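I am still getting used to backbone structure tokens and would like to learn alongside you. To get us started, please write out a protein record for me. Start from the sequence, derive the backbone structure tokens from it, and show both lines together. Once you have written the record down, we can walk along the chain together:
***
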Amino acid sequence: MHDSAGSNSPATLSYGGAPLTALVVLRMLIGWHFLYEGLVKFLNPYWTSALFLSESQGIFSSFFTWLVTDPTRLAGVDFLVKWGLVLIGLGLIAGVLTRIATCAGLVLLLLFYLCNPPFPGLSYSVPMEGAYLIVNRTLIEAAALGVLWYFPTGQIIGLDRLIFRGRGTTDEDDS
């Protein structure tokens, strides 16, 4: 719902009941997916993003393949991916710094999508889960995070409510 001024900024949207529950569940499910993917990468001592990056056929493929050419750079990317997934997941699940976690998750997913897009004529050595044509689960999850951007549920159900109570500012105001 919009406020009387008709603004649709996150701070002026109000929602509750079933819509709020659905949005919080969506936030937590996406958070669980991020957390799980990060933990799996931490627990596998052989995991690296090298194959994923080296197979890039997207618009920025030269950048992604360049990341693989230096072991130090690749180690940095692996570190950022693992920790990024875990921290984004925890932020979304707990509703802490939800706007930051949502934005970081959206950026990470779009980078994954741009690295290996499911476009016609492109093939990869690691098979995809299904037969995708432009739209895959990465893009869908990014779109869901885009929706959550406009509904900062952490202010209502999450640690953001406790962290920013009475301060007059939230992480949402800073974005």
Observations:
- The chain has one domain: 18-156.
- Residues 1-12 have pLDDT under 50 and may be disordered.
- Helices lie at 17-43, 50-54, 61-68, 71-94, 98-115, 137-149, 159-163, 171-174.
- The two ends are 21 Å apart (CA to CA).
